[in-house]
Design a protein that fits this description.
The complex is a heterodimer of chains A (138) and B (134). With 138 residues, chain A is mainly alpha-helical. In chain A, 87% of the residues lie in helices and 0% in strands. Chain B has 134 residues and is mostly helical. Chain B has one domain: 3 helical TM bundles of succinate and fumarate reductases (Up-down Bundle). In chain B, 69% of the residues lie in helices and 0% in strands. The radius of gyration of chain B is 20 Å and the shape is elongated. Classes of the chains: A mainly alpha (138), B mainly alpha (134).
Chain lengths: 138, 134
Amino acid sequence: MQAVKLTLAGLVRYQGREGQISFILHRLTGLGTLLFLAIHILDTSTVYFFPSLYDHAIALYRTTPFMIGEIFLVFSVIYHGLNGVKIAIFDLVNPGMWNIETQRKASTWALVGAIILWLPAAFIMTRNLLVHNFGLGL
Amino acid sequence: MAANVTSQAVKKESVRVAQGLEITAWKWMRYSGLLLIPLAWIHVALQDVIVGVHAIDITYVEMRWRLIGWRIFDFLLLAFAFAHGMNGLRQVLFDFVSGENARRRLSWTLLILWLVISLIGAVAIIGGVAIPEN
C-alpha cells in the first residue's frame, strides 16, 4: 500500500511531460489489454470445454458497456503497439535516441499515430453499437 | 537509466550487463512486442472491427478454425501475447514489491497462472469446437 501511495504521489509531482505520459499510458493500456486477454482466453476456451456456454459469453460482449469497453480496448492495443515499437527501436537499434528531444517527439507521434489509426476503427465500432443496440437504420 | 540526460545526446558508454534470465526477459519483451504488431493488430482489426461481435458465435468459430492456418495464428497469438502480458504485469508489480523473496514468490505465482491459462487456451485451440449440446 505504501508503495502504491508513493507511486501515485510521485506521478503527480514528477513533471516528466511526454515521456512520463507515455510511460503511464503504456502501462495502463498494457494492463487493460492483459485483463481482457485473460478473460478472452477463458471465454473462447468454452468452445471446447463447455460449448453451450459460448453464446452466453458472446451475449455479454454484445451489451453496450462491453462494446464501449471494446472501443477502448482497440485504442489500447494500437497505442501500446506503436509506443512499444518506439521502445523496441530505441532500445535495440540506438539507445542514444532516448535523449529528451527525440524521446518527446517519438512519444507524441506514438500518441498522435494511435489516435489517427484508432478513429476509423472507433467510427465503425460506434456505428455497429448504434445499429445493433440502439436500432440505428442503415 | 542515465542520470543526466541532456538534450544533446545520451553519452555513449559500453556497459557490461550481467547475463541471465532477466536480460533474456528484457530482450524477449521487445522481440515479442514487435511480433505482436502483426499478430494482435490483424486479430483485433478482423474480429473487433471488420467482423464485429454481433457476427461472432460458435458456428463462426467452428468455421474459422476449419482452416489450420487460423488455428496456428491463434496459437501464436495466445503464446506470445499472454506471455508478453504476464511478464509485463510482473514488471509493473516489481515496482510495488521489494525484497528478493517476495519477488520470487510473485514470479512463481504469475508463471503458474500464465501456464494454467495458456494450457486451457492451447487445449481449446487444438481440440477445436465441440458440438453444442443445445
